[in-house]
Design a protein that fits this description.
The structure is a homodimer of 339-residue chains. Chain A is of the alpha/beta class. Chain A has helices at 9-16, 20-27, 35-48, 54-60, 76-92, 109-120, 135-143, 167-180, 198-212, 228-239, 253-265, 299-314, and strands at residues 66-71, 96-101, 124-127, 148-151, 162-165, 186-190, 221-223, 247-250, 275-277, 294-296, 324-325, 328-330. Helix content of chain A is 43%, strand content 14%. In chain A, helix 1 (9-16) crosses helix 2 (20-27) and helix 6 (109-120) runs parallel beside helix 7. At the A-B interface, helix 4, helix 5, strand 2, helix 6 and helix 7 of A face helix 4, helix 5, strand 2, helix 6 and helix 7 of B. The first copy, chain A, binds a DNA duplex (16 and 16 nucleotides) through helix 2 and helix 4.
Chain lengths: 339, 339
DNA sequence: GTGAAAGCGCTAACAA
DNA sequence: TTGTTAGCGCTTTCAC
């Protein structure tokens, strides 16, 4: 078991018989190196199994190749997939990622966020909801003049700083789907009011209902809080109505799961007595009975595109990138055609 | 919106009218600084809102304060919670964490792992399953002489390098619970064979059955692969047996969910016709009907303890730390008492 | 108890 | 096309 010692740029330079600057040029793909020299240097790099020291690079460069992913911690599935995408892209282009959970309700949040940003010497940040909806937080980032990409922000953000999904549109499609299955009395459970983007989902529902000429009955529009239990509470009310809805569209899966639990408790079968659809395609949706019809956001792709957009900005590349990524409906077994 | 510029150790030294070395001493809690000087320096630090530059520190120090968390990507819930714990502890003691997903089945895995370790100049690693069971991978770490903590490794690892849970014991308790509810014909679905620790769960089942003097019928011991669909397949077989089990103990929740789906498909009610228990307490277990009785591992605590153990090692602290963390059963509604 | 100087491994600015 | 030099911000000698 031989202990390996990392080699330095000087070692490479010695082996290739060039100056360290030349090695540096090769590493960073800078111009003005003869092909022959490049070959020599690359051979030496391979031979020594050389890896540049990221700290030394960061220290020497003005802008370190480090970005951070900021998130709260409500949903493991959401954040893991976003993170996957971000890490995958950054790994390709040789950026480091610092993962930073921040408790949304913590006192001194801004102070600790500021401290973090300072300490980490970030080049830029990727921000997920609910922080991407938080004006104060975004101002903080701007006060550092840091490039950023906000994921699914409900704020009025310039396109070059944001990545969004077409929640409103898919939500409309989902409602259309319900309508095309004969449903008219379609209840809607809204999401947490501070999550702006989730409320686009309600708008999509409104769009579809309006277009179909079905008047929205506000007594079957509930205000949820994204959690299982809040879904249950909404469902209790909805299902105890004299004129029950035939379908419930929940703005997220977790609340939809709450609806299904309450339905079973009340002796209702899904989907024969009640159709239910959700949003997010969280892993459990395939596991519950019946499997839930829901909307899948391509989270890995969102993470990847966010990282790409941010890094392109950092490197002053032309960015004519798409900023809307399409979600799509996953049809499963929780909707029944009625007449 | 004023753009803030980070201050350096020199700024602090100027303001406090001392040398940079003295500032460095204060930052690192080194001895031989008069109380008065410490006060002066600390005031200057506060005034300038100074944060040491982690790269410069890492570069100057031999050992950077950076560790990495290595994982595959099967389970968002598992890894997010472990990560939470690791990040929380590291944040407290001022270590950076690099999160590194590695595809288990990728070709050139070892090569890319090696490259990663070199490049990141890690001080140590925390390794989760399945890598903590991978001899080749562990040898790689050792070839770099890097301190490590292996989470839930099934290998014969020295206690100071590992954090485990009492899977075998809880698994025995769970089986006891089933037995005490009148079940004798208890099926078991084993987990993926390369995940060593998951097979401790089977041992616990054996322990309990043996102790209760119930002979284990191998025709109701299934080999699962941790996935929903593999749970379904096992359940298909189990439930088509002439002499059906009255309870099924699945080594993870996902397979248990598969069992429940198949049971419903076959017109069986849970728990009245069949009791089912799982392992992991993944979020969906509370959402399915009926809520599943399962085992909860304190994942955040595992992450935190792993980080603590690793960092104590890095800093040569005495480590008389516990290395086994207790899981416990979460009783819900998927088990019925039979006679 | 304190400070000056060297150097960690790299990049940037300037020469050659 | 290539090399030299001076830092980046910090810690580590070693001297005072």
């Amino acid at each position: 078991m031989s202990i390996k010692k990392a080699s330095t740029i000087q070692d490479v330079a010695n082996k290739a018989k060039v100056s360290i600057k030349t090695v540096s040029r090769v590493i960073n793909n800078e111009p003005n190196v003869s092909l022959e020299t490049v070959k020599k240097v690359e051979t030496a790099i391979d031979l020594l199994d050389y890896q540049p020291n990221a700290f030394a690079q960061s220290l020497a460069r003005s802008k370190p190749k480090i970005i951070s992913l900021i998130y709260d911690t409500p949903s493991p599935n959401y954040i893991s997939h976003i993170m996957e995408g971000v890490l995958a892209y950054c790994y390709k282009v040789d950026y480091e990622v610092i993962i930073h959970p921040l408790r949304f309700n913590e006192v001194g949040l801004m102070r600790s966020a500021e401290k973090f940003i300072k300490k980490s010497r970030l080049a830029g940040l990727i921000v997920t909801p609910p922080y991407s909806d938080n004006v104060e937080f975004i101002k903080l980032i701007e006060s550092f003049d840091l490039p950023k990409v906000l994921i699914s922000s409900g704020l009025n953000i310039s396109e070059e700083d944001s990545i969004k999904t077409n929640d409103r549109e898919v939500s409309m499609q989902m409602t259309d789907y319900l309508i095309s299955n004969g449903h008219k009395r379609i209840a809607f459970i809204k999401g947490h009011p501070t999550h702006l983007c989730i409320n686009d989902r309600f708008k999509g529902y409104q769009d579809a209902m309006n277009r179909a000429g079905i008047e929205i009955d506000n007594s079957i529009v509930e205000n949820g809080l994204n959690s299982l239990s809040s879904g249950e509470q909404c469902a209790e009310r909805l299902l105890s109505l004299k004129e029950r809805p035939t379908a419930i569209f929940s703005s997220n899966d977790e609340m939809a799961a709450g609806v299904i639990k309450v339905a079973y408790r009340n002796g209702l079968n899904i989907p024969s007595d009640l159709s239910v659809v959700g949003f997010d395609d969280s892993p459990m949706t395939a596991m519950i009975t019946p499997p839930l019809t829901t909307v899948k956001q391509p989270l890995d792709a969102i993470g990847e595109k966010s990282a790409e957009k941010l890094i392109d900005k950092l490197e002053n590349k032309e960015l004519v990138r798409e900023s809307v990524i399409n979600s799509n409906i996953i049809y499963r077994d929780s909707v029944k055609k009625i007449n």
